[in-house]
Amino acid sequence: MDAYLEITLRPDPEFGQQLLLDALMGKLHRGLVGAETNAIGVSFPRYSEKPRNLGDQLRLHGTADQLGSLMAQAWLTGMSDHLLVSDIKPAPAEARYRVVRRIQPKTNAERLRRRYQQRHAVSEEEVRSLIPDSVVKPVSAPFLSLRSASTGRRFALFVDHGPLLNEPVNGEFSSYGLSQAGTIPWF
User: Fold this and answer.
1) What is the DSSP string of 132-145?
2) Closest CA to 145 of 46, 49, 16
3) In total, how many domains does the chain have?
4) Does 20 fall in a domain?
5) How crowded is residue 183: how many other Cβ atoms within 10 Å of its Cβ?
6) Which of 47, 74, 83, 114 has the CA that lies 20 to 30 A from 136?
7) What is the average pLDDT across 93-99?
8) In the predicted model, what is the mean pLDDT of residues 15-24?
9) β 154-161/183-186 pair status
10) Which residue blocks in the chain are alpha helix, DSSP H?
11) What is the pLDDT, as a whole number, of residue 35?
């Protein structure tokens, strides 16, 4: 990942920053699926945990060729008035690295019980004893609100920025540009 480009949200009086970022990530997801790549990563250089916010900028990481191919697609159609898109630039040589990954916290005991019952032949009473309300943990990570292409349901995609590392780690990236192990340059 020796190149990057930045997409910055323009302030808009009609649409809030979070709504625009959610829409941008939905479009990026469809663009990455269309590009059939697992080699483009994403980061949110202006994120904060308190208050919980991913910020107004998204950075795409990859090779110049990969990023150029992605940007040649029309995945940003309909959003150009709301965005400033930089040129593709080389990543700074002195950058450190970090994993930007999806986390899937246990936030709803009822949903966990329903899913367990769908997969196993157990009664409601049994599943309540297997999955008590105490499994629910509070979440402090920032998130995106997205719509699933397969089910049409909205879901929260929680994003975690891992610790800074001195060396890169190779890994595959999901169709959201996130990875459980692969790092992106952080600068």
Assistant:
1) -GGG-----S-EEE
2) 16
3) 1
4) yes
5) 24
6) 47
7) 97
8) 95
9) unpaired
10) 17-35, 64-72, 109-119, 124-130
11) 92
Residue closest to 56 by CA, chosen among 72, 65, 45, 64: 45
pLDDT at 52: 86
Q: What is the mean pLDDT of the chain?
A: 92
- 136 in a structural domain: no
First CA to last CA distance, the chain:
13
| Model pLDDT, residue 150 | 72
Q: Which residues pair with 101 in a beta bridge?
A: 160
Locate 122 and state its tokens.
């157990």
Domain that holds residue 61: 3-104+141-186
Q: Is residue 41 part of a domain?
A: yes
pLDDT score for 110: 83
Question: Per the structure block, which two tokens stand in for 20?
Answer: 């625009």
Asked whether residue 134 is domain-assigned, the answer is no
Query: Across-strand partners of 90?
Result: 3
Q: Residue 43 above 90 pLDDT?
A: yes
Q: Output the domain CATH number for residue 98.
A: 3.30.70.2540
Q: Please list the active-site residues.
A: 29
Q: Three-class SS of residue 168? A: coil
111 Cβ neighbours under 8 A, 6+ residues apart: none
The whole-angstrom separation of Cα 97 and Cα 36 is: 24
